[in-house]
Amino acid sequence: MAAAHYDRFSANRLLEALADTPVVALNGARQVGKSTLVGELARSMAEPVRIVTLDDQTQLEAAMADPAAFVDHRGLLVIDEVQRAPGLLPAIKAEVDRDRRPGRFLLTGSTRLLSLAEMSASLAGRVEVIDLWPLSQGELGRRREGFIDALLTWSTELRHTSEVEPDAYTERICGGGFPEPLTRSGRRRSAWFDNYATTVVERMVIDTVGIERADMLPRLLRLCAARTSNELNITALANDAAMPERTVSAYLGHLQRVFLIQLLPAWSRNLTSKVAHRPKVFLTDTGLAADLLGVDSSSLTLPSGPLGSLLETFVTVELRKQQAWASSTVDIFHFRDRGGTEVDLVLEARDGRVAGIEVKAARSVAGSDFKGLRLMRDRLGDQFVGGVVLYRGQQTVPFGENLLAVPVAALWELPG
Fold this sequence. Notes:
Strand order of the largest sheet: 9-10-11-12-14-13
Number of strands: 14
Mean pLDDT: 91
Protein backbone atom coordinates (compact mmCIF):
# COMPACT_ATOMS: atom_id res chain seq x y z
CA MET A 1 0.00 0.00 0.00
CA ALA A 2 1.39 3.40 -1.00
CA ALA A 3 1.81 6.01 1.70
CA ALA A 4 -1.03 8.54 1.74
CA HIS A 5 -0.45 12.24 1.34
CA TYR A 6 -0.89 14.36 4.45
CA ASP A 7 -0.81 18.12 4.84
CA ARG A 8 1.78 19.15 7.43
CA PHE A 9 0.54 21.82 9.81
CA SER A 10 4.09 23.16 10.26
CA ALA A 11 4.14 24.33 6.63
CA ASN A 12 2.77 27.79 7.43
CA ARG A 13 5.42 28.36 10.06
CA LEU A 14 8.07 27.37 7.53
CA LEU A 15 6.75 29.89 5.01
CA GLU A 16 6.58 32.62 7.65
CA ALA A 17 10.21 32.01 8.57
CA LEU A 18 11.37 32.11 4.96
CA ALA A 19 9.59 35.45 4.53
CA ASP A 20 11.78 37.27 7.06
CA THR A 21 14.85 35.12 7.82
CA PRO A 22 17.87 34.50 5.56
CA VAL A 23 18.42 30.88 6.65
CA VAL A 24 15.78 28.43 7.83
CA ALA A 25 16.71 24.99 9.12
CA LEU A 26 14.14 22.18 9.09
CA ASN A 27 15.14 19.52 11.61
CA GLY A 28 13.59 16.10 11.86
CA ALA A 29 14.17 12.39 12.03
CA ARG A 30 14.85 10.28 8.97
CA GLN A 31 11.69 9.24 7.11
CA VAL A 32 9.57 11.87 8.87
CA GLY A 33 8.60 13.67 5.64
CA LYS A 34 11.06 16.60 5.39
CA SER A 35 11.81 16.07 1.70
CA THR A 36 8.12 15.72 0.85
CA LEU A 37 7.27 18.95 2.66
CA VAL A 38 10.14 20.84 1.04
CA GLY A 39 9.19 19.57 -2.42
CA GLU A 40 5.60 20.70 -1.98
CA LEU A 41 6.77 24.09 -0.73
CA ALA A 42 9.08 24.50 -3.74
CA ARG A 43 6.28 23.75 -6.18
CA SER A 44 4.07 26.37 -4.55
CA MET A 45 6.59 29.21 -4.81
CA ALA A 46 6.56 31.75 -7.63
CA GLU A 47 10.36 31.97 -7.87
CA PRO A 48 12.52 29.02 -8.98
CA VAL A 49 13.85 26.86 -6.19
CA ARG A 50 17.03 24.80 -6.45
CA ILE A 51 17.03 21.60 -4.38
CA VAL A 52 20.17 19.53 -3.80
CA THR A 53 20.56 16.53 -1.52
CA LEU A 54 23.85 15.60 0.08
CA ASP A 55 22.73 11.98 0.16
CA ASP A 56 23.84 12.12 -3.49
CA GLN A 57 27.56 11.36 -3.46
CA THR A 58 28.33 13.62 -6.41
CA GLN A 59 26.60 16.60 -4.79
CA LEU A 60 28.37 15.83 -1.51
CA GLU A 61 31.77 15.78 -3.22
CA ALA A 62 31.03 19.07 -4.97
CA ALA A 63 29.96 20.68 -1.71
CA MET A 64 33.14 19.65 0.05
CA ALA A 65 35.42 20.54 -2.88
CA ASP A 66 34.28 24.16 -3.28
CA PRO A 67 31.76 25.29 -0.64
CA ALA A 68 31.70 28.93 -1.83
CA ALA A 69 30.79 27.98 -5.39
CA PHE A 70 28.24 25.44 -4.16
CA VAL A 71 26.21 28.02 -2.22
CA ASP A 72 26.50 30.83 -4.80
CA HIS A 73 22.99 31.10 -6.20
CA ARG A 74 19.92 33.23 -6.85
CA GLY A 75 16.53 32.57 -5.33
CA LEU A 76 16.05 29.87 -2.68
CA LEU A 77 18.63 27.11 -2.32
CA VAL A 78 17.46 23.98 -0.47
CA ILE A 79 20.24 21.76 0.87
CA ASP A 80 18.96 18.42 2.09
CA GLU A 81 20.89 16.54 4.81
CA VAL A 82 23.27 19.46 5.29
CA GLN A 83 24.87 17.82 8.34
CA ARG A 84 26.85 15.62 5.93
CA ALA A 85 28.92 18.65 4.84
CA PRO A 86 29.30 20.97 7.87
CA GLY A 87 32.01 22.84 5.95
CA LEU A 88 29.21 24.48 3.95
CA LEU A 89 28.05 26.49 6.94
CA PRO A 90 30.87 29.09 6.96
CA ALA A 91 30.29 29.56 3.22
CA ILE A 92 26.58 30.10 3.84
CA LYS A 93 27.45 32.65 6.53
CA ALA A 94 29.67 34.55 4.11
CA GLU A 95 26.97 34.49 1.44
CA VAL A 96 24.30 35.73 3.88
CA ASP A 97 26.58 38.47 5.19
CA ARG A 98 27.01 39.61 1.59
CA ASP A 99 23.27 39.55 0.91
CA ARG A 100 20.86 39.52 3.86
CA ARG A 101 17.67 38.99 1.87
CA PRO A 102 15.22 36.62 3.61
CA GLY A 103 14.53 33.19 2.20
CA ARG A 104 17.98 32.54 0.77
CA PHE A 105 18.65 29.08 2.23
CA LEU A 106 16.49 26.26 3.49
CA LEU A 107 18.59 23.60 5.20
CA THR A 108 17.23 20.22 6.23
CA GLY A 109 18.92 17.79 8.55
CA SER A 110 18.27 14.49 10.25
CA THR A 111 20.34 15.58 13.22
CA ARG A 112 19.76 18.58 15.46
CA LEU A 113 21.59 21.16 13.43
CA LEU A 114 22.19 23.55 16.31
CA SER A 115 24.17 20.79 17.99
CA LEU A 116 26.76 21.18 15.23
CA ALA A 117 29.55 23.47 16.39
CA GLU A 118 29.78 24.92 12.89
CA MET A 119 26.09 25.87 12.89
CA SER A 120 26.25 27.62 16.26
CA ALA A 121 29.41 29.49 15.33
CA SER A 122 28.46 30.42 11.79
CA LEU A 123 24.74 31.12 11.74
CA ALA A 124 23.86 32.57 15.14
CA GLY A 125 21.34 35.35 14.55
CA ARG A 126 20.89 34.35 10.91
CA VAL A 127 18.90 31.14 11.22
CA GLU A 128 15.50 30.00 12.48
CA VAL A 129 15.22 26.32 13.37
CA ILE A 130 11.94 24.44 12.97
CA ASP A 131 11.44 20.85 14.12
CA LEU A 132 9.34 18.46 12.05
CA TRP A 133 8.05 15.51 14.05
CA PRO A 134 6.27 12.35 12.90
CA LEU A 135 2.67 12.85 11.81
CA SER A 136 0.31 14.06 14.51
CA GLN A 137 -3.07 12.44 15.08
CA GLY A 138 -4.70 15.57 13.65
CA GLU A 139 -2.56 15.42 10.52
CA LEU A 140 -3.51 11.77 10.10
CA GLY A 141 -7.17 12.74 10.47
CA ARG A 142 -6.75 15.90 8.35
CA ARG A 143 -7.98 18.14 11.14
CA ARG A 144 -5.76 20.78 12.73
CA GLU A 145 -5.62 20.35 16.49
CA GLY A 146 -6.30 23.13 18.98
CA PHE A 147 -5.87 21.37 22.30
CA ILE A 148 -3.00 23.52 23.60
CA ASP A 149 -4.87 26.75 22.91
CA ALA A 150 -8.08 25.37 24.43
CA LEU A 151 -6.19 24.36 27.56
CA LEU A 152 -4.29 27.65 27.97
CA THR A 153 -7.52 29.66 27.60
CA TRP A 154 -9.58 27.12 29.59
CA SER A 155 -12.04 27.03 26.72
CA THR A 156 -15.50 25.51 27.06
CA GLU A 157 -14.39 23.18 24.21
CA LEU A 158 -12.52 21.18 26.86
CA ARG A 159 -15.88 19.85 28.02
CA HIS A 160 -15.63 17.28 25.32
CA THR A 161 -17.45 14.04 24.59
CA SER A 162 -15.59 11.52 22.45
CA GLU A 163 -16.76 8.44 20.59
CA VAL A 164 -13.31 6.82 20.73
CA GLU A 165 -13.59 3.50 22.54
CA PRO A 166 -11.07 2.82 25.33
CA ASP A 167 -9.41 -0.05 23.46
CA ALA A 168 -9.03 1.99 20.25
CA TYR A 169 -6.07 3.94 21.64
CA THR A 170 -3.74 0.97 21.46
CA GLU A 171 -3.63 0.89 17.66
CA ARG A 172 -2.87 4.60 17.54
CA ILE A 173 -0.06 4.11 20.05
CA CYS A 174 1.45 1.15 18.20
CA GLY A 175 1.05 2.80 14.80
CA GLY A 176 3.02 5.91 15.76
CA GLY A 177 3.45 8.77 13.31
CA PHE A 178 6.00 7.73 10.67
CA PRO A 179 4.18 7.62 7.30
CA GLU A 180 5.63 4.34 5.97
CA PRO A 181 4.86 1.89 8.83
CA LEU A 182 1.30 3.24 9.00
CA THR A 183 0.74 1.51 5.64
CA ARG A 184 1.85 -1.81 7.14
CA SER A 185 0.75 -4.16 9.89
CA GLY A 186 2.05 -7.12 11.84
CA ARG A 187 5.46 -8.45 10.92
CA ARG A 188 5.92 -6.01 8.05
CA ARG A 189 5.44 -3.03 10.36
CA SER A 190 7.84 -4.54 12.88
CA ALA A 191 10.40 -5.14 10.12
CA TRP A 192 10.26 -1.46 9.16
CA PHE A 193 10.83 -0.27 12.73
CA ASP A 194 13.67 -2.75 13.27
CA ASN A 195 15.40 -1.64 10.08
CA TYR A 196 14.79 2.03 10.88
CA ALA A 197 16.39 1.88 14.31
CA THR A 198 19.40 0.00 12.95
CA THR A 199 19.83 2.35 9.98
CA VAL A 200 19.60 5.54 12.04
CA VAL A 201 22.01 4.25 14.67
CA GLU A 202 24.55 3.03 12.12
CA ARG A 203 24.28 5.80 9.55
CA MET A 204 23.40 8.88 11.55
CA VAL A 205 25.30 8.18 14.75
CA ILE A 206 28.17 5.83 14.03
CA ASP A 207 29.13 7.33 10.65
CA THR A 208 28.79 10.92 11.88
CA VAL A 209 30.39 10.65 15.30
CA GLY A 210 32.62 7.61 14.91
CA ILE A 211 32.02 6.43 18.47
CA GLU A 212 33.46 3.42 20.20
CA ARG A 213 31.26 0.59 21.51
CA ALA A 214 28.73 1.38 18.79
CA ASP A 215 27.24 -2.07 19.34
CA MET A 216 25.85 -0.78 22.64
CA LEU A 217 23.66 1.91 21.06
CA PRO A 218 20.77 -0.39 20.05
CA ARG A 219 20.78 -1.87 23.57
CA LEU A 220 20.77 1.60 25.10
CA LEU A 221 17.84 2.58 22.88
CA ARG A 222 15.87 -0.47 24.07
CA LEU A 223 16.65 0.40 27.67
CA CYS A 224 15.31 3.92 27.02
CA ALA A 225 12.15 2.41 25.51
CA ALA A 226 11.67 0.39 28.69
CA ARG A 227 11.96 3.65 30.67
CA THR A 228 9.93 5.90 28.38
CA SER A 229 7.94 8.52 30.37
CA ASN A 230 10.06 7.86 33.48
CA GLU A 231 12.65 10.05 35.13
CA LEU A 232 16.13 9.53 33.75
CA ASN A 233 18.44 7.94 36.30
CA ILE A 234 21.84 7.84 34.62
CA THR A 235 23.36 5.65 37.31
CA ALA A 236 20.66 2.97 37.05
CA LEU A 237 20.72 3.12 33.25
CA ALA A 238 24.51 2.76 33.19
CA ASN A 239 24.30 -0.24 35.53
CA ASP A 240 21.73 -1.97 33.31
CA ALA A 241 23.75 -1.19 30.19
CA ALA A 242 27.02 -2.25 31.85
CA MET A 243 28.62 0.98 30.66
CA PRO A 244 30.33 3.92 32.42
CA GLU A 245 27.99 6.79 33.32
CA ARG A 246 30.01 9.25 31.25
CA THR A 247 29.66 7.04 28.18
CA VAL A 248 25.92 6.61 28.73
CA SER A 249 25.46 10.39 29.02
CA ALA A 250 27.36 10.94 25.77
CA TYR A 251 25.46 8.22 23.93
CA LEU A 252 22.12 9.61 25.11
CA GLY A 253 23.18 12.93 23.59
CA HIS A 254 23.76 11.18 20.27
CA LEU A 255 20.32 9.51 20.42
CA GLN A 256 18.74 12.91 21.11
CA ARG A 257 20.54 14.52 18.19
CA VAL A 258 19.07 12.03 15.72
CA PHE A 259 15.56 12.38 17.20
CA LEU A 260 15.28 8.85 18.61
CA ILE A 261 14.75 10.08 22.17
CA GLN A 262 13.85 13.36 23.82
CA LEU A 263 14.22 14.66 27.36
CA LEU A 264 11.50 16.56 29.21
CA PRO A 265 12.99 18.92 31.82
CA ALA A 266 11.74 19.19 35.38
CA TRP A 267 9.68 22.26 36.29
CA SER A 268 9.85 24.26 39.49
CA ARG A 269 8.11 27.41 40.65
CA ASN A 270 9.07 26.86 44.31
CA LEU A 271 5.80 25.08 45.00
CA THR A 272 7.55 22.91 47.57
CA SER A 273 10.96 22.92 49.18
CA LYS A 274 11.99 19.54 47.79
CA VAL A 275 11.53 19.36 44.04
CA ALA A 276 13.02 16.57 41.92
CA HIS A 277 15.21 17.93 39.12
CA ARG A 278 15.79 14.92 36.87
CA PRO A 279 14.36 15.09 33.35
CA LYS A 280 12.05 12.43 31.99
CA VAL A 281 13.13 10.40 28.97
CA PHE A 282 10.76 9.67 26.08
CA LEU A 283 10.99 7.80 22.81
CA THR A 284 10.11 10.22 20.02
CA ASP A 285 7.59 7.84 18.43
CA THR A 286 5.34 5.38 20.24
CA GLY A 287 5.25 3.00 17.28
CA LEU A 288 9.01 2.63 17.51
CA ALA A 289 8.82 2.32 21.31
CA ALA A 290 6.18 -0.42 21.12
CA ASP A 291 8.28 -2.35 18.59
CA LEU A 292 11.40 -2.10 20.73
CA LEU A 293 9.39 -3.40 23.69
CA GLY A 294 7.92 -6.25 21.64
CA VAL A 295 4.28 -5.30 22.19
CA ASP A 296 1.39 -4.79 19.79
CA SER A 297 -2.12 -3.40 20.11
CA SER A 298 -3.47 -6.65 21.61
CA SER A 299 -0.69 -7.33 24.14
CA LEU A 300 -0.38 -3.67 25.20
CA THR A 301 -3.45 -3.87 27.45
CA LEU A 302 -2.40 -7.05 29.27
CA PRO A 303 -1.81 -6.57 33.02
CA SER A 304 1.95 -6.76 32.43
CA GLY A 305 1.83 -4.48 29.38
CA PRO A 306 3.35 -0.98 29.32
CA LEU A 307 0.09 0.80 28.47
CA GLY A 308 0.53 3.50 31.11
CA SER A 309 4.03 4.55 30.08
CA LEU A 310 3.27 4.39 26.35
CA LEU A 311 0.04 6.38 26.73
CA GLU A 312 1.91 9.11 28.60
CA THR A 313 4.58 9.04 25.87
CA PHE A 314 1.84 9.27 23.24
CA VAL A 315 0.30 12.35 24.89
CA THR A 316 3.70 13.99 25.36
CA VAL A 317 4.83 13.60 21.75
CA GLU A 318 1.45 14.76 20.45
CA LEU A 319 1.80 17.96 22.48
CA ARG A 320 5.36 18.40 21.17
CA LYS A 321 3.97 18.30 17.64
CA GLN A 322 1.18 20.77 18.39
CA GLN A 323 3.67 23.29 19.80
CA ALA A 324 4.65 24.09 16.19
CA TRP A 325 1.25 25.52 15.24
CA ALA A 326 -0.46 26.47 18.50
CA SER A 327 -1.24 30.17 18.91
CA SER A 328 -0.03 29.96 22.51
CA THR A 329 3.75 29.71 22.79
CA VAL A 330 4.41 27.20 25.55
CA ASP A 331 7.25 25.24 27.08
CA ILE A 332 6.56 21.73 28.38
CA PHE A 333 7.93 20.23 31.60
CA HIS A 334 7.12 17.63 34.23
CA PHE A 335 6.84 18.16 37.99
CA ARG A 336 7.52 15.94 40.99
CA ASP A 337 8.49 16.66 44.55
CA ARG A 338 10.37 14.24 46.76
CA GLY A 339 7.19 13.41 48.62
CA GLY A 340 5.78 11.81 45.50
CA THR A 341 3.36 14.55 44.44
CA GLU A 342 3.64 14.91 40.68
CA VAL A 343 2.12 16.30 37.52
CA ASP A 344 2.97 14.42 34.35
CA LEU A 345 3.05 17.47 32.08
CA VAL A 346 3.26 21.17 32.88
CA LEU A 347 2.58 23.69 30.12
CA GLU A 348 3.93 27.16 30.83
CA ALA A 349 3.13 30.09 28.57
CA ARG A 350 5.59 32.93 28.08
CA ASP A 351 3.34 35.27 30.09
CA GLY A 352 3.51 32.98 33.15
CA ARG A 353 0.21 31.14 32.75
CA VAL A 354 0.47 27.48 33.75
CA ALA A 355 -1.69 24.43 33.01
CA GLY A 356 -1.18 20.87 34.17
CA ILE A 357 -1.94 17.47 32.65
CA GLU A 358 -2.07 14.06 34.27
CA VAL A 359 -2.30 10.98 32.03
CA LYS A 360 -4.14 7.89 33.24
CA ALA A 361 -4.56 4.66 31.28
CA ALA A 362 -7.69 3.81 33.30
CA ARG A 363 -11.22 4.07 31.93
CA SER A 364 -12.32 6.03 35.01
CA VAL A 365 -10.85 8.77 37.20
CA ALA A 366 -10.81 9.26 40.98
CA GLY A 367 -10.39 12.42 43.01
CA SER A 368 -6.95 11.25 44.15
CA ASP A 369 -5.73 11.52 40.54
CA PHE A 370 -5.88 15.32 40.91
CA LYS A 371 -3.51 15.55 43.90
CA GLY A 372 -0.67 17.22 42.01
CA LEU A 373 -2.99 19.46 40.01
CA ARG A 374 -4.65 20.68 43.21
CA LEU A 375 -1.23 21.54 44.64
CA MET A 376 -0.45 23.61 41.54
CA ARG A 377 -3.83 25.35 41.66
CA ASP A 378 -3.57 26.21 45.33
CA ARG A 379 0.04 27.45 45.17
CA LEU A 380 -0.04 29.33 41.85
CA GLY A 381 -3.30 31.21 42.33
CA ASP A 382 -4.33 33.29 39.32
CA GLN A 383 -1.42 32.03 37.23
CA PHE A 384 -2.93 28.55 37.24
CA VAL A 385 -5.25 28.28 34.23
CA GLY A 386 -6.51 24.77 34.89
CA GLY A 387 -5.64 21.10 35.13
CA VAL A 388 -6.91 18.04 33.29
CA VAL A 389 -6.59 14.32 33.77
CA LEU A 390 -6.56 12.71 30.34
CA TYR A 391 -8.06 9.22 30.54
CA ARG A 392 -9.50 6.50 28.29
CA GLY A 393 -13.10 7.32 29.05
CA GLN A 394 -15.48 9.15 26.72
CA GLN A 395 -16.99 11.92 28.88
CA THR A 396 -15.58 15.10 30.40
CA VAL A 397 -16.24 15.17 34.15
CA PRO A 398 -15.62 18.19 36.45
CA PHE A 399 -13.60 17.56 39.63
CA GLY A 400 -13.66 20.98 41.24
CA GLU A 401 -12.67 24.49 40.28
CA ASN A 402 -10.66 24.46 37.02
CA LEU A 403 -10.14 20.69 37.20
CA LEU A 404 -11.53 18.29 34.60
CA ALA A 405 -11.24 14.65 33.60
CA VAL A 406 -11.10 14.72 29.79
CA PRO A 407 -10.94 11.95 27.15
CA VAL A 408 -7.45 11.51 25.65
CA ALA A 409 -9.01 11.90 22.20
CA ALA A 410 -9.59 15.60 22.95
CA LEU A 411 -5.92 15.96 22.02
CA TRP A 412 -6.83 15.75 18.34
CA GLU A 413 -10.60 16.21 18.32
CA LEU A 414 -10.61 19.84 19.53
CA PRO A 415 -10.29 22.01 16.39
CA GLY A 416 -7.51 24.55 15.92
